[in-house]
Design a protein that fits this description.
Layout lengths: L8 E7 L3 E7 L5 E8 L5 H22 L2 E8 L2 E2 L4 E4 L4 E4 L1 H5 L7 E5 H12 L7 E7 L3 E7 L2 E2 L31 H4 L1 H12 L7 H10 L5 H28 L3 E6 L1 H18 L12 E3 L6 H5 L3
Parallel strand pairs: 1-4, 4-8, 9-12, 12-13
Antiparallel strand pairs: 1-2, 2-3, 5-6, 6-7, 9-10, 10-11
């Protein structure tokens, strides 16, 4: 067993729309060891079994190596203290995940919305720790969100709230997995951006995000792809800016944090987003600058925040 001064550790789990990551976290928020599994391509009726088997195997393996105090799981969607009420991007509904896992895991288990976990991690250890009033968005398969006021998550009662991704920005717009139309995440998630860019350039899903980023970063005005990239990027930034402006007008945060795979595209998207917000008539209280911080914990924020 890996022990240092008889310390105890926790296991954080980030259950995303396309993957699951499980890590051992120490008392300072450092991930000591991590395993991952892709969920993409798994049919809906098998998702629960894959999730449970993956978590049970990893947790029991880590228990052999570390003294584990508890398990925390970050999950996209509407989550109560013990049930996944609805996770549209995973196809889960009224899923008693803790009850199922406790059959094979003899440890305390807690669950929380993934965006809130990431926000807590960034506010505790990351890019937002110096601010008291924060708006946080995760841009990935969908869009998650959290609001932190005076260093505490906004309390919305029994249901977690802050379903930022399902704020409607286009009346009668694109069909969303939640059953409504025109939701923010159908226009401004990173999945939407990458899919739109691939389609416009004539690529399928085998053309990776890394390849898309490299193409965007290196494109020259003389390249035939340049105008296509700029057109898709402009439309994406307009949609993302519209949604963020609505939230800024409500909460007036000191800082906005953005996590998820947007972080890896920050070099080619972030400055355009800032310009969109300050140069157009989007903000009720105009300003010359806007404070947007990309998550420094990256995709590990969910793992770390799950156990705080």
């Amino acid at each position: 067993m890996k022990e240092k001064n008889n310390l105890f550790y926790k296991i954080g789990i980030d259950l995303g729309g396309s993957h699951i990551a499980i890590g051992v976290v120490d008392g300072k928020g450092k991930i000591l060891e991590k395993v991952e599994k892709k969920l993409k391509g798994i049919i809906t009726k098998e998702v629960k079994k894959v999730i449970e088997d993956t978590i049970i195997e990893a947790v029991n393996k880590f228990k052999e190596e570390y003294k584990i105090l508890e398990v925390g799981i970050a999950i996209p969607g509407t989550v109560t203290k013990d049930v996944v009420v609805k996770s549209v991007n995973l196809g889960l509904k009224n899923y008693k995940i803790i009850e199922e896992l406790k059959r094979k895991i003899d440890l305390p288990i807690k669950i929380r919305n993934d965006a809130k976990c990431a926000a807590i991690a960034e506010s505790t250890y990351g890019s937002l720790k110096q601010y008291n009033r924060v708006l946080f968005l995760t841009l990935g398969t969908g869009i998650g969100g959290a609001v932190i006021i005076n260093n505490k998550l906004l309390d919305t009662g029994d249901l977690p709230g802050c379903e930022i991704g399902h704020m409607v920005i286009e009346k009668d717009g694109i069909d969303c997995n939640c059953g409504r139309k025109g939701c923010f995440e159908k226009y401004a998630s990173m999945k939407a951006f990458k899919n739109n860019l691939r389609k416009a350039l004539g690529y399928d899903e085998t053309f990776s995000g890394k390849e898309l980023f490299a193409m965007m970063k290196n494109a020259k005005k003389s390249d035939k792809e340049y105008k296509i990239i700029e057109k898709v990027k402009k439309e994406y930034i307009e949609n993302l800016g519209l949604g963020i402006a609505n939230l800024v007008n409500i909460f007036e945060p000191e800082a906005i944090g953005i996590g998820g795979s947007f972080v890896y595209f920050g070099e080619v998207l972030l400055e355009d987003l800032k310009k969109e917000l300050v140069s157009k008539n989007l903000l009720f209280n105009p300003r010359k600058e806007i404070n947007i911080q990309t998550a420094v914990l990256g995709n590990e924020a969910g793992i770390i925040g799950a156990i705080i």
